[in-house]
Design the sequence.
């Protein structure tokens, strides 16, 4: 054993030198090597600026998203509740008000337009911290493991919420299952991780932003490259580029919430620049009668409305409804996809007059509205008592001085102030007051 060692050409030292040399070059080329990421733009101040923008933006997104859920009245009736297993997550639900009449138009327009506008900021933020995702060892301690898991939920949650939201407004339902539970539960997971991250990083961000200019180095900056490439763009220039990207998205999406030439600027989404056509009925539609499977036969001469309540069951033809007291209300259509129209001049029978006729009792929970439509998630919806009793809530028969078109819900549709578009049922066939 002793002899063979003496005769050998010192393999361990030779081999380890060789391996060490090779290992250095291979490891240097991996994303986990400090010198791999060479952009001189990266730095904790750059990340902090993007973080502060996201702090404000994501908070508004979360709040407006929760408001959007409350606006469906999910606690009123199972037909409205798309996340029946939400448990404590519904703690904040409240009776959605009917005023101001543009409330949902504002909250949902803000939610979707802001979500689109923040995409460049989110991508820039992820780009700015990407070296941290590759640092080795991946886990150093139990505390570090927990932090990594929270980052997985943060990054995964952010990507999930943005991707599902953007696909939804593009009418691309590629994800398995219903959008509502996915986006709702995803929002809670993402926001919990977001809060944990913000609690750790906001103080750091404030400190570094107060201590010097954007282009100055921070001592021991965890994101600055140790071997930066020559700059082609300053940090200020990079932030301006991100801001310009956001501005471009804002210009090409905000128009979905306005009529006229602004809507034509909204080229990036369906229901944006699409021309709704001329005439009094020429305003945006979410689902056409054809797409909803509505036929002329179901809504023509043979159609009648059933009104049911403690006083009994009544049937009305359209001429009979037209013979009742008619009222007008100027209300918008505001869709869950974030687009909306300006106020349209609706005319028809007040829901509260039909309620009185049906013997709707004081303090009753509300009204169940059913449509001729046989497929789709909102063909039956419940409206709350405050919505039934509002003098502007109508069973509309005409709009802007003309009979409703089939696409806008002929022979009769519900229109309620401040309610999401999906609660404004088209092609109504039955109203059940009181017993929900
Ligand atoms: C959509 C929201 C956000 C996502 C997806 C996100 C993602 C990340 C990731 C993956 C990291 C690297 C891991 C780490 O070091 O913690 C990071 C670092 C950082 N984040 Fe965020 N972040 C978000 C929001 C924020 C907010 C709101 C702030 C503060 C206002 C912030 C400030 C920072 C800072 C300063 C760092 C660098 C920490 C360091 O390396 O010393 N981030 N972020």
Sequence:
């Amino acid at each position: 054993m002793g002899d063979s060692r003496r005769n050998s050409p010192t393999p361990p030292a030779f081999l380890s030198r060789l391996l060490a040399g090779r290992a250095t070059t291979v490891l240097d080329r991996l994303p986990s090597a400090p010198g791999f990421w060479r952009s001189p733009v990266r730095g904790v101040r750059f990340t902090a600026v993007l973080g502060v923008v996201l702090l404000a933006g994501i908070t508004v997104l979360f709040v407006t998203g929760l408001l959007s859920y409350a606006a469906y009245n999910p606690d009123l009736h199972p037909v409205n509740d798309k996340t029946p297993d939400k448990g404590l997550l519904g703690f904040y639900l409240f009776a959605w008000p009917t005023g101001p009449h543009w409330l949902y138009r504002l909250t949902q327009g803000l939610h979707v337009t802001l979500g689109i506008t923040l995409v460049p900021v989110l991508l820039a933020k992820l780009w700015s911290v990407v070296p941290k995702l590759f640092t080795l060892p991946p886990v150093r301690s139990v505390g570090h493991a927990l932090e990594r898991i929270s980052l997985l939920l943060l990054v995964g949650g952010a990507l999930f919420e943005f991707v599902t939201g953007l696909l939804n407004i593009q009418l691309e339902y590629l994800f398995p299952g219903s959008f509502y539970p996915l986006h709702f539960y995803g929002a809670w997971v993402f926001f919990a991780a977001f809060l944990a991250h913000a609690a750790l990083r906001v103080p750091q961000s404030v400190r570094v932003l107060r201590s010097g200019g954007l282009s100055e180095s921070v001592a021991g900056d965890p994101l600055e490259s140790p071997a930066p490439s020559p700059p082609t763009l300053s940090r200020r220039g990079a932030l301006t580029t991100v801001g310009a990207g956001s501005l471009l998205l804002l210009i090409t999406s905000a128009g979905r919430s306005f009529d006229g030439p602004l809507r034509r600027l909204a080229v990036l989404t369906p229901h944006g620049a699409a021309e709704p056509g001329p005439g009094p009925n020429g305003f945006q539609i979410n689902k056409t009668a054809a797409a909803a499977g509505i036929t002329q036969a179901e809504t023509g001469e043979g159609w009648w409305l059933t009104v049911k309540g403690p006083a009994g069951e009544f049937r009305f033809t359209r001429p009979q409804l037209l013979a009742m007291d008619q009222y007008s209300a100027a209300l918008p259509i505001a869709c869950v996809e974030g687009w909306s129209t300006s106020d349209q001049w609706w005319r028809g029978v007040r829901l509260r007059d039909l309620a009185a006729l049906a013997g709707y009792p004081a303090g009753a929970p509300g009204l169940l509205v059913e449509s001729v439509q046989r497929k789709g998630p909102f063909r039956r919806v419940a409206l709350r008592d405050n919505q039934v009793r509002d003098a502007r809530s109508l069973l509309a028969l005409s709009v802007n001085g003309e009979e409703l078109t089939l696409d806008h819900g002929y022979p009769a549709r519900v229109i309620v102030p401040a309610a999401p578009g999906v609660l404004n049922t088209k092609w109504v066939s039955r109203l059940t007051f009181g017993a929900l």
Q: What stands out?
A: Residues 1-11 have pLDDT under 50 and may be disordered.
